[in-house]
Backbone:
């Protein structure tokens, strides 16, 4: 197939993507410069909404909280994901397919099912609290297990761990064991082999998996809302309030675009890092 | 089943399938009603459909805001009847989306309870755009087996006995109204609070937040939280009270003396509905305010209609259940209104939750 035919074939798909994905975002971007007067949108462009975000400790805090949660969960999933991905890629043998399928099983259930499963585990009358009371570890249920940031981050880690493992597993699959053998022959100990050989060579998988987890955690508002209790507010639920209850589409759009711009910056940084690590890997 | 019986059944099924859509297509007017699912049960509407030449299509909403967003985004031309909250009608009128109610075509509107006749909500320049349809209260619901006494609004702001066992709806309007009632802000000032009053409200809402187990978003979720004992007391809707009582839990429902939040939904007709469709819509509106629908709603909901049309046909126990036995109870209601500074209210609510 020539490049020209390929271009013609791709054109309808590109047009479809632009019409359905890019155009709404551009409309949202335009709205972010308008303002609302009761239920009427005033089409008088200004940076007032962006100034409001910059001047509001609440919105700044919520944006920071979202990215903080994203980074924390990405880090936790990386720590858990490394040994799991290594085992599946290098030690599972014939069990590889079965383990990968098992890894994805939780994703087949819906978000709400997973949330309620965590409630059954973490609730005051839940499995963990009852076990602790039965074992005499505590007299009363530990309330902080559920409806707390702890519950939120446990569930987020569980939800998005498979995405990190898959990214790392792909990286481990392409990691030639000869590199590790050579490093060992040259006297490198375990931690040194990991830091100087494994980490650089699997970093494209780590960055790709990390970005995926990061983005999904930043955009998840159901889990914090249903497990986070009184502290479960997220920037996404605040945007939802602005679009729905307050009918302040312009401010909602401005916050959404601020988030999008920061995420795009992270993606650009990720792309640069992947490119650099690929160069290192190929050297 | 032998072959002959099978063929007969298949033919009968095919015939029914063919006549179903045909019957619908033959109706003179096909109306689209945007509403809550619990208001448009087939059983509630069948008497009207049987007695008229109207076919009704229903499209269900999840929130009032969603309904407004759909109409605001250009959906008004395809909808014949909508169900906005009484406090939200001003959104629609300000956006020029509604036409006035033609009371000549809605004789059952004469039976509206006085509260709804007199209210200024849903009206512009004396003309009614959203006619009160059904109503109720949002009380405090609590686990009577886990609380010592009937609570009032102060339970959300004072003492520490129930810390971590309380829940509040995640809704700025009602959350701030409750704080205002607790602070004793008069009803006529409540929706026009100045900066000083809003600062006071924010202060007590911060205290409230420290006492909450969670903010709830769906009534099913709250019912679940009551059932598992995670929450013992919440600002709630009525259904968890009856649902859990039926399941054997000792539930209580408190209507605080400081005031109870009353809600009312209206029915409103979008601007573009004209001619025969308009006549058919008002015929339907009249039915929805009439005795047959009112009785079905009272027992099936259970919810109270805004008119007295069905009141005498409802037994005392059910009247009590839907708050129409003693109508003076309405005097303690604080009806939800849309505050002019609602954006500030939402910002304040988010500030409290993010604190």
Residues:
């Amino acid at each position: 197939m020539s490049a020209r035919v390929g271009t013609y074939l791709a054109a309808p798909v590109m047009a479809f993507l632009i019409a359905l994905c890019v155009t709404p975002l551009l409309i949202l971007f335009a709205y972010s410069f308008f303002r609302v007067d009761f239920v009427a949108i005033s089409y008088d462009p200004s940076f007032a909404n962006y100034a409001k975000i910059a001047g509001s400790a609440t919105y700044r805090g919520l944006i920071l909280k979202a990215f903080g949660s994203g980074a924390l969960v990405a880090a936790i999933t990386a720590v858990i994901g490394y040994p799991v991905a290594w085992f599946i890629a290098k030690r599972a043998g014939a069990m590889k397919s079965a383990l990968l399928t098992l890894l994805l099983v939780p994703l087949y259930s819906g978000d709400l099912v997973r949330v309620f499963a965590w409630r059954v585990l973490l609730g005051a009358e839940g499995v963990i609290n009852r076990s602790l009371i039965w074992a005499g570890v505590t007299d009363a249920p530990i309330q902080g297990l559920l409806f707390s940031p702890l519950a939120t981050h446990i569930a987020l880690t569980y939800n998005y761990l498979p995405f990190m493992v898959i990214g790392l597993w792909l990286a481990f699959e392409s990691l030639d064991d000869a590199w590790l053998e050579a490093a060992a022959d040259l006297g490198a100990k375990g931690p040194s082999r990991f830091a100087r050989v494994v980490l650089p060579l699997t970093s494209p998988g780590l960055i790709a998996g990390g970005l995926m987890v990061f983005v999904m955690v930043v955009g998840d508002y159901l889990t914090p809302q249903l497990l986070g209790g009184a502290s479960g507010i997220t920037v996404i639920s605040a945007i939802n309030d602005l679009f729905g209850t307050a009918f302040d589409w312009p401010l909602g759009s401005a916050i959404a675009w601020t988030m999008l711009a920061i995420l795009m910056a992270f993606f650009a940084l990720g792309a640069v890092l992947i490119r650099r690590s690929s160069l290192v890997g190929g050297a | 089943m032998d072959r002959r019986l099978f063929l007969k059944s298949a033919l009968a099924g095919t015939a029914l399938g063919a006549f179903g859509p045909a019957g619908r297509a033959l109706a003179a007017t096909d109306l689209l009603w945007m509403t809550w699912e619990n208001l448009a049960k087939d059983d509630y509407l069948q008497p009207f459909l049987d007695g008229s030449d109207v076919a009704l299509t229903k499209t269900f909403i999840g929130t009032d805001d969603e309904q407004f967003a759909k109409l605001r985004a250009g959906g008004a031309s395809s909808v014949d009847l909508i169900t906005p909250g009484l406090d939200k009608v001003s959104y629609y009128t300000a956006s020029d989306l509604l036409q006035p109610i033609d009371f000549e075509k809605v004789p059952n509107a004469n039976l509206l309870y006085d509260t709804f006749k007199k209210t200024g909500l849903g009206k512009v320049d004396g003309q009614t755009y959203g006619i009160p349809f059904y109503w109720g209260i949002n009380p405090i619901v609590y686990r009577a087996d886990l609380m010592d006494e009937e609570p009032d609004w102060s339970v959300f702001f004072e003492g520490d006995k129930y810390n971590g066992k309380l829940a509040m709806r995640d809704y700025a309007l009602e959350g701030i109204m409750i704080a205002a009632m607790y602070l004793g802000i008069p009803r006529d000032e409540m929706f026009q609070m100045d900066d000083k009053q809003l600062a006071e409200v924010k202060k007590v809402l911060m205290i409230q937040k420290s006492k909450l187990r969670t903010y709830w978003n769906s009534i099913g979720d709250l019912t679940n939280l009551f059932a598992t004992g995670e929450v013992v007391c919440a600002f709630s809707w009525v259904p968890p009270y009856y649902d859990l009582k039926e399941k054997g839990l000792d539930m209580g429902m408190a209507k605080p003396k400081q005031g109870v939040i009353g809600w009312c939904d209206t029915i409103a007709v979008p601007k573009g509905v004209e001619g025969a469709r308009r006549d058919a819509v008002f015929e339907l509106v009249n039915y929805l305010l009439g005795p047959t629908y009112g009785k079905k709603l009272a027992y099936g909901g259970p919810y109270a209609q805004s008119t007295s049309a069905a009141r005498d046909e409802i037994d005392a126990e059910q009247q009590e259940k839907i708050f129409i036995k003693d109508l003076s109870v309405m005097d303690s209601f604080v009806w939800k209104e849309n505050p002019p500074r609602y954006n500030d209210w939402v910002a304040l609510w988010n500030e409290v939750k993010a604190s």
Remarks:
- Residues 55-282 of chain A form a domain with the MetI-like fold fold (CATH 1.10.3720.10).
- Chain A touches chain B through 31 residues (CB under 8 Å).
- The longest strand of chain A covers residues 35-37.
- The longest helix of chain A spans residues 57-91.
